[in-house]
Design a protein that fits this description.
The protein has 3 helices and no strands. The relative contact order is 0.15. With about 70 residues, it is mainly α.
Length: about 70
């Protein structure tokens, strides 16, 4: 049985990515599909199937919002 909170967390994470790219869906989708060094050179989309993966993405977004460069 799937955790209902997982779907909410996944949607929240996607919305945070979209917000980071100021609503530019194309840029957000491009980032989600690109290798990201801080994520072990994995595309973020490949991590969106698990809670730990979603948390890694959210941590990267939080660091960016705080001005840290990854």
């Amino acid at each position: 049985m799937k955790d209902p909170n997982f779907d909410e967390l996944r949607e929240l994470t996607y919305q945070e990515v979209l917000q980071h790219f100021e609503g530019d869906k194309t840029a957000a989708e491009r980032w989600l599909s690109s290798s990201v060094r801080v994520l072990g050179n994995h595309p973020p989309i490949s991590l969106m199937g698990t809670k730990p993966g979603l948390q890694k993405i959210r941590n990267v977004l939080r660091k960016w919002s705080e001005g840290a460069v990854s």
